[in-house]
Amino acid sequence: MERSVVVLLAGDSGDGIQLLGGQMVRAAAQSGRDVRTLSDFPAEIRAPQGTVSGVSGFQFRMASEAIHDPGSQADCLVAFNAAAFTKYADRLKPGGLLIAAQEGFDARSLALAKLPATADPLAEARQRFRVLDVPVKDLTLRARSASPAGQRDKLRSRNMLVLGILVWMYGMPADAVEVELEHLFRGDDANVAVFRAGLHFGETLEVQDYLVSVDSQEVPRGTYRTVNGSQAMALGLAAAAHQLGRPLLYSSYPITPASEILHELAKLQPEHVTVLQAEDEIAAVTSALGASFAGGLGVTASSGPGLSLKAEGLGLAVMTELPLVLIDVQRGGPSTGLPTKTEQSDLAQALHGRHGEAPLPVLAARTAADAFDTVLLAAKMAVECMTPVIVLSDAYVAGSAQPWRIPSVDELPTITPPRGEASDAPYGRDEQGVRPWVAPGTPGGAHRIGGLEGEAGSGRISYEAANHQSMVRARAAKVDAAVRLYGPLEVVQRCPNADTLVLAWGSTYGAVRGDVERRVAEGQKLDYVHLRHLHPLHPDLKAAAEGYRRIVVIEMNEGQLAHHLQGCWARPVESVCKTTGQPFTEDELASLWN
Amino acid sequence: MELSAKDFQSPEEVRWCPGCGDYSVLKQFTEVLASTGADPNRTVVVSGIGCSSRLPYYVDTYGIHSLHGRAPAVATGIKLANPNLDVWIITGDGDALSIGGNHLIHALRRNLNVPILLFNNEIYGLTKGQYSPTSRAGQVTKSTPRGSVDQPLNPLTLALGAGATWVGRSMDRNPAHLRAQLAASQAHQGSALLEIYQNCNVFHDGAFEAWTEKSSQAAHAIFLEPGRPISWGGAEPTHALAWNGGRPEVRVLGADFGLADAWVHDPADRIKAFALAELEGVLRPFGVLYSADRPIFSLPSGTRSLNDVLHSGRTWTVE
């Protein structure tokens, strides 16, 4: 019995790889296995068919125990064509299983993959791997022989054949998968027929070597679903609107990979939530801010270049002290960079990238499930502290799926708006430094706000030197006081007498946790803190950090958090980083530092 | 209790240059708020950046002085969060047509239910005298010492092209006319773009004298009235427009061409509105060029309960 298996699915972006992966994840999660995923899309919608640049990949790891990352080397690679095999052969463990679609290795496919006509990649593969070559095309066409559809249409079900084989191989509940497929395809049973053909192929093959079983684990009671980071963000915003009980305007401009949140919210239609596709990134942030001025909660999202375009709007949000949530789904940059790949390189801009003294809270989500809690906390901070808040996600969190226990509504955190009576001075402050939220429509509350510096209390235009100084400090102090909404400092891994503190943030969580656990098992004395709060830092972090000889900061950029902490703490830290567009793996981290 | 114009004046000290046309616009604006019975608790004045965009500070309603060019986007968010608010956008030629051009055209095409008051002075005033998108070809400014080479933009044809449902023009020097257009723009259901010729006496003085001064106005300004012949020249009109083969033609009124033969203004006719807007020479139209009904922009918020949303898609239960 294996404890954990990593499967990598690869083919043309039109082969239905992501759908196949999604069904495997659901089947695994539904049958009590823990699952983590990693998608690898080309940036083009339909890159040239059969070529290496057009290969789409989907990796998942399922396990009989709690896991935190999608694994690194695959136990099984499914290659729909020669290009897919060429791209990912090095990701398959020596001796691992290659499932190859026979027709994807014909002369034409070799040419498209830029392999010489004389090459025989499957023969070469047999030297390194166990190979199961399957006539996927023939089996699919045979399973659909009764259908009047054309061959091209019939072959769209090829992914279902592979699904059948995988479900059989990994001993997963075929009945439950059939129910899902019937739901998904709404009574079109052609796909179910092909799925069954795959199951039968597995059974009749009777090659027991291929059978791999992964135990189920004990999971807490409750109702579950799978979520990726984008879906979890959308659900978190729906929850925020409900908890606030006021209009929430989600305004954004399409950009990869942030757009999926827009699609999810537009589809879900949660109460109190209005979705606007703005005319550009600047309109997205400024319309969201308009909604906040009007007494609702403005939310916007973007990626990479869009964050830069919104910087001016954030300045106005800081100056007017209105709530705003900005989600940045980071991708490889600068500029268009690697729009479908992951990176954590917007941190410096999130922390510092504004004109003037303009501090604001910055949070980061570590996993898909965590994205729900993080965005809900961001909404709470924005409203209760009257400040814009940036939430950092990335392409990896956005696209990774995992099982998620659906919380009950009464266990969600409350969101309590500040006072907002007509008698409240617009820029008077409570004991936490928070100004009131007097929305238009409040009788007797008429007042003006804007980008010009306002006088403390009244908010009227003021160019007074002393007033500006005190307002700059009051805005910063208000943000610093947001730490009252943090829980206790979470130490993910704690060792007696640890002399080294490992710090990481965002989507590196799974890989870093695996790396740290392995090192601790080998006898290294490490503690590990994973930061959700990038600004303000957790109030107990600095004092905790002082107790360690070494601090190692791991991140997917060129050391942005490391530089920031060195500045804040005036002490050296060690930086472990990379910017390849791919997330860290546990194995990779093992070799990156000592 | 009825409010007077004075009740709509905020305690803020008005800081435009002495003699600026903005003073008149502010005065007519507060007069119209009072005369139309505006509720200061539900009125929101939104502006961008520039001399004109200081106006919200001087009006005792809710107001937000936002970012350069972004007032239409801010107003869109305000209207979506609370459609019951009466929102006004205050902007200028640089704010609306240069840095904020994109937001303006999208507000107009969506038919956001907001009057947009575009103070056109054909110059950048707040930044002290550079040429603007409406500056005339050859205009000498601080940034064009040898004269501007740019073709000026026509705010009215731009608005019509963008799908505006109400397009009008007025001037700072004719208070009664300006008040009437302000009230009409506010009464319109949908986006109303009102261009206001506004004199910048410091950087581009006299730009609109041909149409605003008593001595020359009669010969150059056409005051449009719905259902009336398009004519000008004084109390007894001397000239009129004919609609001749799909284009406007200037005719002298007399024995062979009387008012009964003239083109009768119909603000519902978009083609003719374009023709009027394209009068860019010495003859210029004032009043409502175009007014049409089209559904106003609104986006309903969702209705699904949170519990339903959280459980959307396929779920399973672990006992």
Find the structural class of chain A using helix and strand composition.
alpha/beta
Order of helices and strands of chain B: HEEHEHHEHEHEHHEEEEHEHE
Q: Provide the low-confidence segments of chain B as ranges.
A: none
Distance between the termini of chain A: 33 Å
CATH architecture of the largest domain in chain A: 3-Layer(aba) Sandwich
Mean pLDDT of chain A: 94
Strand % of chain A is 15-25%
The CATH topology label of the domain at 5-212 in chain B is Rossmann fold
Number of strands of chain B: 12
Helix content of chain B: 25-40%
Q: What's the mean pLDDT score of chain B?
A: 97
Number of domains of chain A: 3
Characterization of the model:
The complex is a heterodimer of chains A (594) and B (319). Chain A is an alpha/beta fold and 594 residues long. Chain A has 3 domains: 4-210, Pyruvate-ferredoxin Oxidoreductase, domain 3 (3-Layer(aba) Sandwich); 225-411, Thiamin diphosphate (ThDP)-binding fold, Pyr/PP domains (Rossmann fold, 3-Layer(aba) Sandwich); 500-592, Rossmann fold, CATH 3.40.50.920. Chain A contains 22 helices and 20 strands. In chain A, helix 21 links the parallel strand 19 and strand 20 (574-577). The longest helix of chain A is centred in the middle third of the chain and has 18 residues, at 368-385. Chain B has a domain at 5-212: Rossmann fold. In chain B, strands 2-1-3-4-6-5-11-7 form an 8-stranded mixed β-sheet, with helices on both faces. In chain B, 27% of the residues lie in helices and 19% in strands. The N and C termini of chain B lie far apart (65 Å). Chain B is an alpha/beta fold. The mean pLDDT of chain B is 97. In chain B, helix 1 crosses helix 6 and helix 2 (71-81) packs parallel to helix 4 (101-110). In chain B, strand 8 and strand 9 form a beta hairpin. Classes of the chains: A alpha/beta (594), B alpha/beta (319). Chains A and B meet through helix 1, strand 7, helix 10, strand 9 and helix 12 of A and strand 1, strand 2, helix 2, helix 4 and helix 10 of B.
